[in-house]
Amino acid sequence: MALLTPLFAFLYHLPQVYKWLLKPYYIASLFMSIAFLLVRKTPGICEHLSTQREDGNSCDFDWREVEILMFLSAIVMMKNRRAITIEQHVGNIILFCKVANVILFFRLDIRLGLLYLTLCIVFLMTCKPPLYMGPEYIKYFSDKTIDDELEKDNRVTWIVEFFANWSPECQSFASVYADLSLKYNCAGLKFGKVDIGRYSEVAKKYRVSTSPLSKQLPSLVLFQGGKEVMRRPQVDKKGRAVSWTFTEENIIREFNLNELYQSKKLGKTKGEKFERPNEPVFSPVPEEEEPEAETITAMDTESKKDK
């Protein structure tokens, strides 16, 4: 099942994969991912390589190389079980293919290993994955505009993503968040984003860590009247994010988007939890019922007799 799931996802998104592979970043990543295969299988090059095969065939994988490839393939399948987009599937495959190439090249020849590792570092510093450029209803904030926008209208509920462009998780989540904005954006429910990798003061104010170890990127926060109502992922006492998967289903359920969208679209405010976050959620105390008219008349009669 762990093998079939990414396979079906790949086939379903095959037309999109073709478009991605035509971009320079993925073309270069593809060649780097199969670099060891090309070196080991290319005639005229493979004959000069060392091998541990008993038959001395240096143009084929030895048993140790096959073992390394099988082990990393298992890791890729386990990692892809938590992938939620095709970008994450492809990114995981590329990442672990490069790791396998580093190990195999160093095992083959330390000079080839150093050369390949240098190429990986240069590629990482100079080439970035293409950003999501599809349709969306999202307002991008800066450090000067976020507070004003969140506090401008108390009737508007904001869902804001705190992200960083260098984060692979944020890049993979971009298409999911864009789809949510297309489905649920309305006059009373809006979606926003702020790059805390660029605006560090915003990260400090809203207590979102940009450290990769904290695993707080991306963070989704729901605001009402400029005040935070809830966020995902939650953060423990040590400042680390509680494990949470950013799937569309999880976000809809946790943020109650269906009910929130209907209430905002139809203008319903009575009994809505997010409309009045400062009010107590307890049931109101029932008012005392007024005494019936007959009881009041009897009491007046008794009072007159006493007099």
Give an overview of the whole structure.
It is a single chain. By secondary structure, the protein is α/β, with parallel strands linked by helices. It folds into 2 domains: 16-126, no CATH class; 139-270, 3-Layer(aba) Sandwich (Glutaredoxin). Helix content is 50%, strand content 10%. It is built from 13 helices and 5 strands. The protein has helices at 4-12, 14-21, 24-33, 35-41, 63-80, 86-108, 110-126, 146-151, 168-184, 200-205, 248-254, 257-266, 293-306; strands at 138-141, 157-163, 189-195, 219-224, 227-232. Strands 1-3-2-4-5 form a 5-stranded mixed sheet. Helix 9 links the parallel strand 2 (157-163) and strand 3. Helix 6 packs antiparallel against helix 9 (168-184). The radius of gyration is 30 Å and the shape is elongated. Residues 268-307 have low confidence and may be disordered.
Describe how the helices and strands are arranged.
Elements: H1 4-12, H2 14-21, H3 24-33, H4 35-41, H5 63-80, H6 86-108, H7 110-126, E1 138-141, H8 146-151, E2 157-163, H9 168-184, E3 189-195, H10 200-205, E4 219-224, E5 227-232, H11 248-254, H12 257-266, H13 293-306
Parallel strand pairs: 1-3, 2-3
Antiparallel strand pairs: 2-4, 4-5
Helix pairs in contact: 3-6, 5-6, 6-7, 6-9
Domain Thioredoxin: 141-230
Keywords: Membrane, Signal, Transmembrane, Transmembrane helix
GO molecular function, one term: disulfide oxidoreductase activity
Structural class: alpha/beta
The fraction of residues in strands falls at 5-15%
Shape: elongated
**Rg calc:** 30 Å
Main location: mitochondrion
Keywords: Membrane, Signal, Transmembrane, Transmembrane helix
Biased composition (Basic and acidic residues): 269-278
Region (Disordered): 268-307
